[in-house]
């Protein structure tokens, strides 16, 4: 499509009519009029002066073909329509129109505003790389290429959003990732007809298989090494511009309890830490409901000495156990939310001091017992052991309906809640793959990627859950060999 017969510069200006920072530099060079349009707040003025204006003045042949070939700028694009030029100008490019030409030229002299590389905030590690992704998709791709130097690494560019277009990159290892998974991701992205997507977490919700479940179906990470590890296992990553987190898919329920630190530690320590993590998570869900069920219906299972202690502690409490438990759980959630919203130093102090003061005051006032304070505190600690923030939030929410079931039917109510939870998890999928894999469908070979941690020589094949094209990582027989230097 060619430019319209109307004045080309005026056409572009109409597209940007509500941008008071739109500038147009008109220069005369070799008998031709050259118009350069840009938004002054988005460009690098040194590049404009040195690499565009000065270069054009020095040219003997001022033509679009000559400038496109010789301009000392990395990114140059020939624009066919005024709308296309306006789109590039909004992104911080400068657009050049030469009198008599049928096309325009867009050059990238954008001044990117981005923060420097920092340590990960939500996924802190003791061992391993500490660097995290940033809000710039170009920087994130650069970090990924430093971590994955495989020549088969693919980074496909897509654009989503009709009113506020956003760049998205789908990344995977070409000869490892399953072709069906790749096509499913591309299809879901291309079928999104939405005004804007503000963050990768929003995009993950738009792409997920089940919108009404409480469980996250895609993993969000800000760690480059975790993404690299997932790509090498046959998974797919999705970058979103202006977002510091990356979507990893497909994922399983057990992926949210894995930490890259499990790889860096020795396998014996990783087994212990993973077991502690799983125990803490299940304790976070069931400790408070068990307290409510036992105190309400099954107090005969408590040893006599402990029963006397609990009875003495609850002697001044006017509420039934379920109200007492819900009150304390709600108070813990208030402290957690307040601590997250306040500045870091103030939030930490408020969470610690507020918890101690409110807990002691609640016991002294007779609102709750000392035993329940301990149980709720352990439940709160257990929820923090989940490496994924999304799964940690899910676990905290799950406690409340199970507490209510325990208050209605005791241990039977807890079993009903567990059964409903398992049935729900069995129905879930992530990118069309079973959410509870490798437990259901059962794959013994993949259990080492989910529940346990073995020495590295046993990881000769990639998990079958991801359906990798190339399942072999290395030769198991070669890994078992041991040779001295003189052999």
Give an overview in words:
The structure is a single chain. The chain folds into three domains: 8-107, no CATH class; 137-251, no CATH class; 267-434, no CATH class. The protein is 46% helix and 13% strand. It has helices spanning 8-15, 45-58, 64-70, 82-90, 137-147, 179-190, 200-207, 224-232, 261-264, 267-296, 304-313, 321-341, 344-365, 370-383, 389-409, 411-427, 476-480, and strands spanning 22-29, 32-39, 76-79, 94-98, 104-107, 153-160, 166-173, 219-221, 236-240, 246-249, 429-430, 433-434. A five-stranded antiparallel β-sheet has the order 1-2-4-5-3, sandwiched between helices. The protein has a five-stranded antiparallel β-sheet with strand order 6-7-9-10-8, with helices on both faces. A two-stranded antiparallel sheet has the order 11-12. The model is unreliable at 1-5 (pLDDT under 50). Pfam families: GerA.
Low-confidence stretches: 1-5
Q: Please give the radius of gyration in angstroms.
A: 29 Å
Instruction: Estimate nothing, just give the exact number of structural domains.
Output: 3
Q: How many beta strands in the DSSP annotation? A: 12
Continuous helix count = 17
Oligomer: single chain
Share of β-strand residues? 5-15%
Strand order of the largest sheet: 1-2-4-5-3
SSE string, helices as H and strands as E: HEEHHEHEEHEEHHEHEEHHHHHHHHEEH
Distance between the termini: 71 Å
Helix content percent band: 40-55%
